[in-house]
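Case study 2.
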Amino acid sequence: MNLKQFLNEEQDPKAVEKLLERINGLLTSQEVVEYIAVQKKPALNLSPDCIALTNRRIIFCRPKTFGLSMDFQDYSWVDVADCHIKEGIIGSTFMMRTTKNFTNMMDYLPKAQARKLYQYAQEIEEQMRGVRREKDLETRRASAGGGITVNNTTPIITPLQQFQQSQPLLIENEDPFALLQKLKGLMENGIISPEEFEDKKNEILSRV
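Prediction:
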């Protein structure tokens, strides 16, 4: 692992080197360190705290017993709800909150490093929000009696497909607005997504 790539915002080289030696043993398959921020307190600190961001998690690293050991607290990105920074006169504070409202923070981070942490976290958060929305939608569909795969060749029938199959083609005496109300109910109950509602709504209105 190239040490120089983690020193672009004037991180303490010794602290980064020591952290990388410890953290390499924690990385899982295909996991890589993306960024490291090193605490910089006004007073002399031979073993500063650090935050390491990987492509899979946030790791808070706090040396113990004068740097002889280190305490690691890690959080998977999919469980991170949001991250914030608060800039002060001396350094910045990085704050993280999980989806279960557990929080962690680190102060006295150089402003440039804290901003990099925030920038990277925002990019990952956006991706993870999409992942959580998709999982939540799948859970809602399953609880609403969506189709079940019996074997690898049996297609999954979604609630929207069930609705479409139960409705005959529109004819003159059918009320398209009644169909729209049913669709709206499915969306409000979280059974179909807003995108699916819009697609079907446009299809129905095009026949009016």
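Strands lie at 33-38, 50-54, 57-64, 69-76, 80-87, 92-98, 103-109.
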